[in-house]
Amino acid sequence: MDSLTQIALGASIGVAVMGRRTAAWKAALWGGVAGLLPDLDVLLDHGDPILNMVLHRAETHALFWLALFSWPLAWCVSRIQGQAHELRRWWAVIALALVTHPILDWFTIYGTQLFLPFTDEALGLGSLFIIDPLYSLPLMAGVFWALRGSLAGWRANSIGLVWSCMYIAWSLVAQQHVLQHAHTSLRAAGLSTEQVFVTPAPFSTALWRVVAVDGDHLHEGFYALLDGGRPMRFDAFERGTALLMQNASHPQVQRLHRFADGFVSLRQDANGDLWISDWRMGQYPNFFFTFNIGPPLSAGQTPPVAIQERRTMSVGAGLAWLGARMRGVDIDPPRGP
């Protein structure tokens, strides 16, 4: 999730755990700091945009390392606050704020390496969009109310935490409902259901994006909860299967293909350069992560540094389509920049 939401979650946990043992602002401050810390890995530059992508949410999001780090950080916080006698309580704040960060990220599609150093597999359930006001705003409201120092504020903070858990549970239920409907629609269209992902369109769980791999094509469709069971329509796009096979030993192709669970496409431009796209985020042709990885490599050749394409659709057109499509209006998505 976005860093502001992670700060709000950490702050809310701090207020809930510390209660009246310290000032609400202190609990919110340290909880928010701990909730933000894992995302500071975005400041690291690994010298290549694809490496920066796949190494985000790595060690700083690993439950093992965060659990180890929580105790010395809590020790420091308890001393700074002059509450050494509340070390266990501060440890609970710091540990929960740290580990809930990657767990919340796990519900997005990006990929979080939760179980480093034992495995570097990137996990992503994909039931939440990275920014979702219906998840974030109740948390923030609860924290702000709690900062007033009243019992009602503490209760509002607790309600915000409960709401956040219920919303996550709802997102999983909605995702499974859409997945089942997508499978039915894909089978009716004679398409494979072996490799499919379902994830929300931006900002809510009212509209969902479905992508399926079928032979040489990637099929993209959208389903709104207000569609009322209407069969999904899918648009087919070339995956570049032949290019993927010809460049299977290319380090950058291998790296992104593994990170994206195979939901990638590869194309070659008029200059001979290869362009690889991660289909999990964005929508055709405006993906968040598309990279120029240079021409095909000869044996033993070192790949050049990738160049990330910065391409986004018109904000106005995108929001207009999003609003209409969430209401169940069956209109084609904008495909231009």
Question: How would you characterize the overall build of this protein?
Answer:
The chain has 337 residues and is α+β, with helices and mostly antiparallel strands. The protein has helices at 3-18, 24-36, 49-55, 63-80, 87-106, 133-146, 151-188, 241-246, 251-259, 315-326, and strands spanning 196-200, 207-214, 217-224, 234-238, 264-268, 274-278, 282-283, 286-287, 290-294, 307-308. The strands form three sheets. It has a four-stranded antiparallel β-sheet. Helix 1 (3-18) runs antiparallel to helix 5 (87-106), helix 1 crosses helix 7 and helix 4 packs antiparallel against helix 5. The longest helix has 38 residues, at 151-188. It starts with a helix and ends in an 11-residue tail after the last helix.
Q: Largest sheet, order of strands side by side? A: 1-2-3-4
Largest sheet: 4 strands, antiparallel
Q: How many domains make up the 3D coordinates?
A: 2
* Count of individual helical segments: 10
Task: Outline the low-pLDDT stretches.
Answer: none
The fraction of residues in strands falls at 5-15%
- What percent of the residues sit in helical stretches (DSSP H or I)? 40-55%
H/E element order: HHHHHHHEEEEHHEEEEEEH
| Broad shape | globular
Give the radius of gyration.
Answer: 22 Å
CA-CA gap between termini: 25 Å
What integer is the average pLDDT?
95
Q: What structural category characterises the helix and strand content?
A: alpha+beta
Q: Write down how many β-strands occur, each being a DSSP E stretch of 2 or more residues.
A: 10
